[in-house]
């Protein structure tokens, strides 16, 4: 059973719940939806910003990198801190920072202010994700994969909704209409305040134990083997999120350039892919609970490769059709990977959440910058032909040991 940490005191041992606390899980999922809807507006309006600010692909990639690297660097720091001292209301605070970034984005007059807005949205994400992942596990009732799926599907759904809302609200009305989404941030702050109160009550009710360093061993593995296994899991995250960066940042440009579709239509097709990612996330956790984490991880590697290899050579219809299994299969592994890592480091739930969400964000940000420069020097079509081979990195999963998550 993982150690949690009382605010102002030593670690607190939480007794296992008899069943998942669905009200809290759904509250976390809803707030994750609102949070990631806000965040996904940024890449969704890149075609609009490219025209308004006369940006090249490299500058667009830099905006995405500032957002995602800010989140990735700070998330493990936040997670490590909250493993030692819980911050129940940091969830609402993170949403407040995202709100500030959203408002700044709607008002940005020059490129430098766009970068600052992206950094604030990334900071809000860094504060939100580690503690939200911890609360999801706390409310899981022992069904850890299910809890992570419910939590993560909210974020993926929000990521899918962002481009759709951008297509029908921001594109027709301009950059200033982004400010309307501050209502979503305010709603998220209300929900997360309620979740924070539940979290604080659980902290007060849990018995205090003497302060000690959280456990860093799991499944009877040596420290060296645990470090090597975490490195393999991060390599899997790299392959998935570097590939997905090609979609989140450049899929609309790919469709516009190769097939001549309009901006609004390209956003709808991006929604198809991101909706498939959301569906894959909700399926992956329960399947991992039932059949083990490793089969889900392996399925996400071997299952997606034929589709990624075929996509660069498909016509418009089949391009859109192929993104459905790609999104489903790629996303199914994330809950399994996260729970697998939590079982390896049972006393460092916040650190694991911050490290893996942060690394995913960082790889997405670096991927956006690298792929943007590659597109500038070659072509957007070449980017997709090259990225098709990234899932092969997942073959490192052969070296994953079986543990309690396995």
TrEMBL record:
InterPro entries: MFS (IPR011701), MFS_dom (IPR020846), MFS_trans_sf (IPR036259). Keywords: Membrane, Transmembrane, Transmembrane helix. The chain crosses the membrane at residues 51-74, 86-105, 111-129, 150-171, 177-200, 221-243, 263-284, 296-314, 320-341, 348-371, 383-400. CDD domains: MFS_FsR. The keyword Phosphoprotein does not apply. This is Fosmidomycin resistance protein. Pfam families: MFS_1 (PF07690). Residues 24-406 form the Major facilitator superfamily (MFS) profile domain. The lineage of its organism: Bacteria, Pseudomonadati, Pseudomonadota, Alphaproteobacteria, Hyphomicrobiales.
């Amino acid at each position: 059973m993982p150690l949690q940490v009382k605010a102002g005191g030593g670690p607190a041992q939480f007794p296992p719940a008899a069943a998942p606390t669905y009200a809290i899980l759904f509250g976390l999922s809803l707030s994750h939806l609102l949070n990631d809807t806000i965040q996904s507006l940024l890449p969704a309006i890149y075609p609009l910003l490219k025209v308004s600010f006369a940006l090249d692909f490299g500058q667009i990639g830099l905006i995405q990198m500032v957002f995602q690297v800010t989140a990735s660097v700070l998330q493990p720091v936040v997670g490590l801190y909250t493993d030692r001292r819980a911050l129940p209301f940091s969830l609402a605070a993170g949403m407040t920072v995202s709100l500030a970034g959203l408002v700044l984005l709607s008002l940005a007059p020059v490129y430098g202010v766009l970068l600052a807005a992206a950094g604030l949205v990334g900071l809000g994400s860094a504060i939100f994700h580690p503690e939200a992942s911890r609360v999801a596990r706390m409310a899981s009732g022992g069904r850890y994969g299910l809890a992570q799926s419910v939590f993560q599907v909210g974020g993926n759904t929000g990521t899918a909704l962002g481009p759709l809302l951008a297509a029908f609200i921001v594109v027709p009305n301009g950059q200033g209409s982004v400010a309307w989404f501050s209502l979503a941030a305010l709603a998220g702050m209300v929900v997360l305040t309620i979740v924070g109160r539940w979290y604080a009550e659980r902290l007060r009710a849990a018995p205090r134990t003497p302060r000690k360093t959280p456990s860093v061993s799991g499944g009877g593995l040596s420290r060296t083997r645990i470090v090597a296994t975490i490195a393999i899991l991060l390599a899997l995250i790299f392959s998935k999120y570097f590939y997905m960066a090609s979609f989140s940042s450049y899929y609309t440009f790919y469709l516009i350039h190769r097939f001549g579709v309009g901006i609004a239509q390209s956003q709808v097709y991006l929604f198809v892919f991101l909706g498939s990612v959301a569906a894959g996330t909700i399926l992956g956790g329960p399947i991992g609970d039932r059949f083990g984490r490793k089969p889900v991880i392996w399925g996400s590697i071997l299952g997606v490769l034929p589709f990624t290899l075929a996509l660069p050579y498909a016509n418009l219809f089949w391009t859109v059709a192929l993104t459905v299994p790609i999104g489903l299969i790629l996303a199914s592994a994330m809950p399994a990977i996260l729970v697998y890592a939590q079982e390896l480091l049972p006393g460092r739930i916040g650190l694991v959440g911050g490290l893996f969400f942060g690394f995913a964000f960082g790889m997405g940000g670096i991927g956006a910058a690298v792929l943007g420069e590659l597109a500038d020097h070659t072509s957007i079509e070449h980017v997709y032909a090259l990225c098709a081979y990234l899932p092969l990195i997942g073959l490192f999963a052969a070296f994953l040991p079986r543990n309690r998550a396995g």
